[in-house]
């Protein structure tokens, strides 16, 4: 049960009554008795909360930044009308800070034997799954003095997918892909082995691609066009260990890596390649395998929705074993990890030959723009030391990248905003040079 | 709502793969909807609260039995109606048998009113009286011509009631000889006395009896009229029921208390407020009564308000938060370490190395050879106006001497780099 502000106000007004008319114990008692009678009457005439039936419908999946509407249907099977204040409680990150109170509370009236629907609008601020907590109903009596209160648990889950903000880069990269494919007039010859078609020579074409046999058969000079190889296998590996937990700007490194992985997957699946995903730190956190192009991105974002950085050191040996198991034939392995010196040198470098021996390896890392900002700092002594420390860190990263490159690994190191297009460009470059 | 699948086919369409949350079957009419209520049933309430109820019961039983079996024997001490070991019913009855009327009073006002030349005032516990009550008793007893018997008054009480007398030491209660010529004591002979011992420097006419180590445990001081007197005993033992028939206790008690036909037996109590200060009024007495009762009602309203605000609309929802560690934290920490250690040499080398690495591609030196002095300097001298030794000392010189030199070095390196950039912009 609960009492309302109206009861408190009446009790305060009772002070006037007691003070002016009945300045005795009796006055206080009379006011208390009247209030108590009102409260008891209200409690007797308020609809019971326990027999209410609650049911949910609504969105189950949204992308971060969008809003989800979840409906809650309240059926009142009793004989008393329900005048209720309802709180549909969700975890705090389901709403922008400061708006959760207004967003979660509803007033509604359900006449006896009927049902009403209320709508809760969620605007999650983080990726992941949001599970409905409890629905608390405060059923007010007709006088508005007291209320019966109870809670129901009506399960519902809204999965918040990664926002995929880098999809704005997709059209331009697809255009580049079509250029590679020889479908446009501007032929950019790929080094792949798959023969596409013959067409007439245009000045500017590579003379090495002239097909003399075909030229001899017809009156004009014919060139062969090639198209880059299709149906290659790409395995995107997300390192979800401690290096992915560091915040760059306002989001952990992992979120930027997810964005880059999504753009690469979207591009590669349009290019006709098969894309698999593996998220690993000390064990497999997510795995997507053998999806068709149409099914790929939904599977990926669903698998990514629940990924969180783990505060453990990644197990590079296990990771490589997982990769080798999932990629039996030659593949492009895109490893999204950090370029910090110690984890790479102690973990990844010793086992890297196992990967580079059989696969093409691309390492992508999220750089921190804060380092560049610190390296530019000048003016006072603190700033100079900051700059020196930042230069030291950048040099170490560069050395790590060079050591990886010496193993034949392509390294992409870019800040969060430019990592997705940079990774996509690196993929296109590999494809154009026929290294897939 | 999220994006429509048709409008942007390359985007994942979230609705296509709903991860079916565990939802209850639609509760249409006729189908029994599952009970989702979280309110505890009566059975759960009983299961939850029975532990506390049992604990409360045990506490009650224990407290009751403790009260029954361990109640103190000092209950009713020196009460003339109490037949306990430490009561004094025996003395009172003996006195009444000898024709002395015994009146029991519990307030200072009654005690003061009952004093007179033909009455004895017995104060059983003077230490329980406050300064004001002591004053009232003193004033009433001083010149009444009657007798006042004080039992074991402490230093404060005795100095107020008998100015000049002081309680200085304590001794065990023992069988003592009178050792004085007070008629009552001489007739009684040995008695159980001791307890508090008194000193009376310069009090005229005082009689000291039953001394321990030279200090009396019974003291008689006559008042100024010569009719009345005050008797101080260091211990209540002679009046206790169980001691009364030992030695000369009974004789002493009867003589001390039976010298007047009327005995006022004053048992001080804590709830006694008969001696008020009539001139003092507090704020609430000055208010009209309506205000006072209105304030009480406002206090009730405050409690109701607290109850209203205290009731939460459902529990607080918690959620595990992701860690918030800035990726650059290690680097920032390293900068602070440099600063604390004044690592000028290391900082300067880091800045120089970075500048060399940036300069090398500008002047056509391979990045891998950027750190070799001769190659880089040879390539640089062609492009910068500054003399070669100066450039060499800037890029490869000794560590800066002090902090300002380090700041200058950073600026000079920036200037060198900027001049090369300018040259690049101008020349091609």
CATH class of the domain at 89-266 in chain B: Alpha Beta
Strand order of the largest sheet of chain B: 1-9-2-3-8-7-6
CATH fold descriptor of the domain at 89-266 in chain B: Rossmann fold
Rounded mean pLDDT of chain B is: 81
Beta percentage of chain B is: 5-15%
Name the poorly predicted regions of chain B. Answer: 1-32
Approximate helicity band of chain A: 25-40%
Q: Strand arrangement, largest sheet of chain A?
A: 18-17-14-19-20-21
Tell me the overall shape of chain A: elongated
Distance between the termini of chain B: 55 Å
CATH class wording of the largest domain in chain A: Alpha Beta
Strand coverage percent of chain A: 25-35%
Number of domains of chain A: 3
CATH architecture of the domain at 89-266 in chain B: 3-Layer(aba) Sandwich
Structural class of chain B: alpha/beta
The CATH architecture of the largest domain in chain A can be given as 3-Layer(aba) Sandwich
Number of helices of chain A: 12
SS content category of chain A: alpha/beta
Secondary-structure blueprint:
The complex is a heterodimer of chains A (436) and B (428).
Chain A: E1 2-3, H1 5-20, H2 25-45, E2 53-58, E3 61-63, E4 68-75, E5 82-88, H3 100-104, E6 105-110, E7 115-122, E8 128-131, E9 134-140, E10 146-153, E11 157-161, H4 170-181, E12 194-200, H5 212-217, E13 222-227, E14 233-239, E15 246-248, E16 251-252, H6 253-270, E17 274-280, E18 284-288, H7 293-305, H8 316-326, E19 332-336, H9 341-358, E20 360-366, H10 369-375, H11 381-406, E21 410-414, H12 419-432
Parallel strand pairs in A: 3-11, 14-17, 14-19, 19-20, 20-21
Antiparallel strand pairs in A: 1-10, 2-4, 4-7, 5-6, 5-9, 8-11, 9-10, 12-13, 15-16, 17-18
Chain B: H1 42-69, H2 89-97, E1 101-105, H3 108-113, E2 119-123, H4 131-142, E3 147-151, H5 155-161, E4 166-176, H6 183-188, E5 191-199, E6 207-212, E7 215-222, E8 229-233, H7 249-257, E9 262-266, H8 283-286, H9 289-310, E10 325-326, H10 329-341, H11 344-362, H12 373-381, H13 388-396, H14 403-426
Parallel strand pairs in B: 1-9, 2-3, 2-9, 3-8
Antiparallel strand pairs in B: 4-5, 6-7, 7-8
